[in-house]
Amino acid sequence: MEEFVEPHVRRVVSDRLGVGVEELVSEVSLRDDLAADSLDLVELAMALEAEFAIVVPDRVLDRVRTYGDLVQTTGHLLRTRCEAEAHGAAAPLRISARITPPAGGSAGTLERTGWLSPYFAETVGDDAMRAGNGARLDVTLSVSSTADLARARRQFAGLGKRGVHVAVRRNDPPSEPFVESTG
Questions:
Q1: Counted domains in the chain
Q2: Is 37 in the active site?
Q3: Mean per-residue pLDDT, 149-177
C-alpha cells in the first residue's frame, strides 16, 4: 500500500511545506528538519484526508515524527478504510459544494470539491454560515444509492435551521425528485 500512497503523500508534503521532493526521505523529521509546526501538521492531515478520503485523528497525528511515519500512517488509515468498506461500512462520498451568498451579499460564489468527511462537511458548513443568512448551499454527489444521498442530506441538515438554504442532489440523472431543505 505504501508504494501507492507514497507519491501522493510526497506531493502533498512538498506543496504544503514548500520543500523539495528530494528532501523527503523516510527518516527526515517533519518538525526538526522540515520546520513543520503544529499548524503545518494539522494542514498536512487535512490535505491527506482530502486526498485519500481518510480521517486522521489527532492522537494518530501526534505520534507522527518523520516523513516515513507519515507515509506509513497514511497507508494504514487507507487500509483501515478499505477494510471497513469491504465489511459493509459506507464508502466515502465525493461531493461538490457551491455556496452562493444571499442577494446583495458582498462575497462571491465559493466552490469546493472533496470527500465528505466530518471535517470537510464542517468546513463547507462554516463557509455557508459565513456567507450570511439566506445563503444557498448546493451539494452535488456522484452516488448511485439512496442511502448515500440520505447520508449526505443528514450531514448538512442543520444548516437549514440556521438560515442557509440547502439542496443536495445526485450528479447522475435523478431517479427521485430534487429535495430542498429550507429549515
A1: 2
A2: yes
A3: 81
Q: What are phi and psi of 106, to 5 degrees?
A: -85, -25
Of the listed 15, 32, 33, 37, which one is catalytic?
A: 37
User: Which domain does 37 fall in, by range?
Assistant: 2-86
* N residues, the chain: 183
List, in sequence order, every residue forming a beta bridge with 97; answer none if it has no partner: 112, 139
The residue whose grid cell reads 501507492 is 4
* Statement to judge: residues 81 and 100 lie in one domain: no
Check if the beta carbon of residue 164 is closer than 8 Å to that of residue 132: no
Pick the residue with more confidence: 161 or 182? 161
Q: Are residues 60 and 111 in the same domain?
A: no
3-state secondary structure of 28: coil
* Best CA proximity match to 170, nearest among 183, 157, 179: 179
